[in-house]
Amino acid sequence: MDQFYLKNAALYQTYVDKVDPTKPQAHFMNLAPRPTKEAADSSNPNMSIGVRIRPMLADDIASGFPCAVYPRPHDPTAKQQTIDLHDLYNHPRRPRPIFKSSTHKLQHVFDASASTSDVYNEVVRDLVVSAADGKLGTLFTYGQTSSGKTFTVTELQKLAVADLLDRHAELHVTVVELAGNVAFDLLNQRERIAVREDASGTTQLVGAIQHQITDKDQGIELLERAMSFRRAAPTLKNPASSRSHCICRIKVTQPATHTQGFLYMVDLAGSEIARDVTEHGPELMRETRENNVSLSVLKDCIRQRALAATSKKKVHVPIRESTLTKILKHVFDPEENQECKTVVVACLNPSLADVASSKNTLRYAELLGKMD
Ligand SMILES: Nc1ncnc2c1ncn2[C@@H]1O[C@H](COP(=O)(O)OP(=O)(O)OP(=O)(O)O)[C@@H](O)[C@H]1O
């Protein structure tokens, strides 16, 4: 596919240049227009979905792949923002490749010019306020490998800590890495820990040390120390690819009222498709398989949780099938009665080389928007 895209990069660009972004969906080369995808439900005040499109990096540009992801200009009056994705296909009965676009609508879209502070102010601050009020807040970033998840979540963690300290909260942080179903404490020399449900059904990180954060600099130092213990390996797509999920949990206590909230900030391992793993050795392949299994359980939980929101029948959400979803139980459990706000930031690498993965990421982001 890469060779096909590279060979037709100039043709692709001529199609992209002809796109009229005011149309609901751009279609060229005699393709019949399709109805625009059903907009995601943005009415749930406890769930926000954002998409962050990282810039094309020097390496992306040097590799010759054009940009495939085009956010439309921000419309402050609209409930949802629009992204167009342009792809190119071979058609057996046509002399030239076919250009095909899809339109995706999401609550919050951050283009390549947006800073992490913009993401924080628009979607994460509310979550932090909620945790400071004694509730549960969860942020997770997901997307294909090298889409900017770690870049985004690392900076958001620091902004959240600074904001919580400004709110005079007492903070205790735990940072855990999940390689498949095995959990390690990143603030205790990668000691292995256990993930268990207690009698009340709450998931506990047994053996993980909670470190108090006393000021911003010490908080940043702790978070950076945790990141330095994270497993990373060079891959075809990312010279410093995180090979695991990373969960940063901040316990937020208000000394005046004794309320206790939790903020979870989760950097998911990158999803990798067959093309991304052609140069993986056996160890990287094993990690990829394990990560893909837990991401797949996560997707099942997302799908089933969305179904549970609309079905009158009891729907099974397979929360216990992976350690990751056990830790995120409060997000997916339809029986959960503690108020929980969730923010998902789907990350995209805009290169045409990754367009199939980007489409998947956007589809799941739209599905998440339907969780009620
Ligand atoms: N918004 C951004 N602005 C500038 N550079 C970015 C941005 N987002 C990501 N990058 C760069 O893109 C590259 C990949 O980002 P990152 O490592 O965060 O991806 P990832 O999704 O966590 O990948 P993996 O799943 O493989 O760990 C890094 O070099 C990072 O610095």
TrEMBL record:
Binding site for ATP: 143-150
InterPro entries assigned to the protein according to its UniProt record, in alphabetical order: Kinesin-like_fam, Kinesin_motor_dom, Kinesin_motor_dom_sf, P-loop_NTPase
Keywords of this entry: ATP-binding, Motor protein, Nucleotide-binding
Keyword ATP-binding: yes
Kinesin motor domain mapped to chain residues: 46-371
Pfam families in UniProt: Kinesin
UniProt KW ATP-binding keyword: yes
Family, as annotated: Belongs to the TRAFAC class myosin-kinesin ATPase superfamily. Kinesin family.
PANTHER family linked to this entry: FI21273P1-RELATED, KINESIN-RELATED
Protein name (database record): Kinesin motor domain-containing protein
